[in-house]
């Protein structure tokens, strides 16, 4: 319960006057009840709401003017009309066939000029003794006449490789037979002769 200070002073002065003039007990009780009732009365509070705030910001907003870009249209190029001349070569029915035959002949000549392709060979000997290299070469001539031995020398080492295999699987079949004599034989990738590779017969035909 809250009593306003001015009201409190006013009531106090009234009480003093009444007390001085009226010394009766029941009037004092009545006055005290009026004070209590007036103190318990509700106060109206004026509240201001902040949701009604409005401000015009249109003056500070940036403005952009859209300018449509100009597109230059390409000028149409006028070409002089010419009378088409008949292509006598294209009108012939065998013209395409002759041209195709020419291209095929060119490819055939190019393929014939290719002698070597990537393939595999079996290396059977690596060492410094010339006689052992010659012995390995002779062994291949006798045991495997379809395989061609190749002896190379890079000082001081001799290397003996045999065969012209286009596929590793064919080389592995001969490797098993050659290892009976040369256990250290291995398959190496190498450039092989195409014609000689076609002359190598399968291992089953030699048995």
What is this structure, in a nutshell?
The protein has 8 helices and 4 strands. The chain has 207 residues and is α+β, with helices and mostly antiparallel strands.
Find the count of extended strands (DSSP E, 2+ residues).
4
What is the second-level CATH architecture of the domain at 116-206?
Answer: 2-Layer Sandwich
Helix content: 40-55%
**Secondary-structure class:** alpha+beta
Terminal residue distance: 126 Å
Q: Which class of the domain at 116-206 in CATH terms?
A: Alpha Beta
In round numbers, the mean pLDDT is: 76
3D architecture notes:
The protein has 207 residues and is an alpha+beta fold. Among the domains are: 35 residues; 91 residues, Sporulation related repeat (Alpha-Beta Plaits, 2-Layer Sandwich). Helices cover 43% and strands 17% of the residues. It contains eight helices and four strands, in the order ααααβαββαβαα. A four-stranded antiparallel beta sheet has the order 2-3-1-4. β2 and β3 form a beta hairpin. The termini are far apart.
Please describe the topology of this protein.
Blueprint: H1 5-21, H2 25-39, H3 88-91, H4 95-113, E1 116-127, H5 130-143, E2 149-154, E3 157-165, H6 168-178, E4 186-193, H7 194-199, H8 203-206
Antiparallel strand pairs: 1-3, 1-4, 2-3
Helix pairs in contact: 1-2
């Amino acid at each position: 319960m809250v009593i306003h200070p001015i009201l409190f002073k006013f009531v106090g002065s009234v009480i003093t006057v009444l007390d001085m003039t009226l010394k009766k007990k029941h009037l004092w009780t009545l006055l005290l009840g009026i004070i209590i009732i007036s103190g318990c009365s509700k106060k109206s509070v004026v509240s201001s709401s902040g949701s009604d705030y409005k401000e015009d910001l249109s003056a500070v907003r940036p403005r952009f003017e859209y300018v449509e870009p100009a597109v230059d249209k390409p000028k149409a190029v006028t070409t002089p009309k010419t009378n088409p001349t008949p292509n006598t070569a294209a009108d012939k029915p065998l013209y395409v066939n002759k041209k195709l035959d020419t291209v095929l002949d060119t490819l055939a000549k190019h393929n014939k000029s290719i002698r070597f392709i990537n393939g595999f060979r079996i290396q059977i000997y690596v060492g410094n003794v010339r006689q052992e290299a010659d012995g390995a070469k002779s062994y291949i001539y006798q045991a495997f006449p379809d395989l061609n031995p190749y002896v190379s020398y890079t000082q001081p080492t001799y290397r003996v490789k045999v065969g012209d295999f286009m596929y590793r699987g064919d080389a592995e079949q001969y490797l098993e037979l050659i290892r009976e004599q040369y256990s250290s034989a291995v398959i190496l990738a190498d450039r092989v002769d195409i014609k000689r590779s076609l002359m190598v017969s399968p291992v089953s035909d030699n048995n």
